[in-house]
Amino acid sequence: MPCNYTGWTGMRAYHDQALIDEFQRRGIDVSAIYNGQAVSFARPVRYDIVGNRLVIIG
What is the pLDDT of residue 29? Predict the structure, then answer.
């Protein structure tokens, strides 16, 4: 993925996308925070090791 981001906001977006990419590479279901186009960390998540997925806490 090319990095065309600048400043704090851009680097945060780049970090978030890299995190999603790595989760997906490991086969982790990220549908709780990623819809295929946008990432949202508005609510805290935890890793469900049995289900191999991220789940919303609360």
Answer: 98
